[in-house]
Amino acid sequence: MLTPPRTVVRREGGLYALERALQRRGFRHVAGADEAGRGACAGPLVAAAAILPEGRRGEIEGLTDSKLLTPAARERIYADVVARALAYAVVVIPAGEVDARGLHVCNLLAMRRALASLTTRPEYVLTDGFGVDGLGVPGLAVWKGDQVAACVAAASVLAKVTRDRLMVELDGRFPQYGFAEHKGYITADHTAALERHGPCAEHRFSYVNVAAVSGRAGRPPRARRPMGTDGVEPMERSAPSGGTVGVALDEQPRLPAPVGEDVAMEGGVR
Question: Model-level pTM?
Answer without folding.
Answer: 0.82
